[in-house]
Amino acid sequence: MHAVSSPPLALDLHYLLTVYGSDFWQAEALLGYALMMLHEAPVLTRQDIASAITMLTNPPPPLNPPYPANKLTSFLNTAGLADQIEMIKITPESMGREEMAWLWTALKADYRPTHSFQVSAVLMQPKLPTSFALPVLTTVFGARPMNPAQIGSVVPPAGRSQALPGETVTVNGAFLTGASQVVLTNARFGMRLTAAATATATSLTFQVPPDAANTYPVGMYDLAVQFLDAAGKITQTTNTLPLAIAANLPASQTATTVPTAGKLKVTIKGIAPAIWKGQSVSLGLSAQAAPFVTAQARAQPVSGAPVKALDFLFDATTPTGIDLLAVLQVDGVPSPVIVNPGVFPAPPTFGGPKVKL
């Protein structure tokens, strides 16, 4: 049995900024400059972190070997700090005189001009095997929008929990007459998509932008409905709701498998749309009949342009030669599964996509 999810551990880190100089006024002036720099740039951008890691792990000449010469330096690229969803924020933290005195006593050093800071949030997420959940077939509750120009539910096609690029999605709400367009926002990649909407008083439909040219990543998007006047100016925007846009797998394929360093490297092709660099991707395989098989593996990182083929390292004991139900999960969004409802009392079955190792 595997856990359904592997939530990250969010940590707040605490630091002391300490300075010294040959004269007291030099130390205090230096501390003032440092405080002003942190005040003007309180957020470490992803580019700042990536550049710092590059300078440590692959610095320009004449720094050779990388500085500092620490055995852990080579592992910094795998930490994912520059790609985490939360930005790293630096905020001043006040400490009383007693706390500061105890701290310097514990350090067994003479006091120097010091200021304390809190750095948050640093996310630690173990790469543990997880199992994917089968799709929800029906829901027994829903939202009732009560205010004008509000959206209450987003309904992907075929009763699924996710939509594919090019598919038509329905949005239910109230007072939606005159709504002109839908805006989809992916904060992680800084992506903003728009789509024309056809609206009535209580619902509207729109087409998720097709993506044959791989112009945007799949994942979770914030959906909002906008009203435009004749000049194209936004006159009203509704609340936001999440929309999951998924990648799709071919209905059936025989994967390429290669034994690699005690593992089984499985190559999956035909992923549409393509996977972008920095996305978290895992593949779950499951047998629907004996012998029962459940296996899950993370994709090898994408290093360049978006790709439609990915490598996964499964346990070497994973059975081969049988059809397995496959679910590709990208940034938390699973690919759709073909559902055969069946006739009661027979349970539903899942027809694909299927992968044979």
- The span between the termini is 21 Å
Oligomer: single chain
Shape annotation: globular
Judged by helices, strands and strand pairing, the structural class is mainly beta
| Rg over C-alpha atoms, rounded to the nearest angstrom | 26 Å
Proportion of residues in β-strands: 35-45%
Low-confidence stretches: none
So how many helices?
A: 3
Q: Write down the domain tally.
A: 3
Described by strand count, sense and barrel closure, the largest sheet is:
8 strands, antiparallel
Number of strands: 23
The percentage helix is: 10-25%
Query: Secondary-structure element sequence?
Result: EHEHEHEEEEEEEEEEEEEEEEEEEE
What's the overall average pLDDT, rounded?
Answer: 86
Short key terms for the protein model shown above:
357 residues; Immunoglobulin-like; 8-stranded antiparallel β-sheet
Write the SSE topology.
Elements: E1 9-18, H1 24-40, E2 43-44, H2 46-57, E3 88-93, H3 97-107, E4 114-124, E5 150-155, E6 168-174, E7 181-186, E8 191-199, E9 203-207, E10 219-228, E11 234-237, E12 241-245, E13 252-254, E14 256-260, E15 263-268, E16 281-286, E17 294-298, E18 310-315, E19 323-330, E20 333-334, E21 338-340, E22 349-352, E23 354-356
Parallel strand pairs: 13-23
Antiparallel strand pairs: 1-4, 2-3, 3-4, 5-6, 6-9, 7-8, 7-10, 8-9, 10-11, 10-12, 14-15, 15-18, 16-17, 16-19, 19-20, 19-23, 21-22
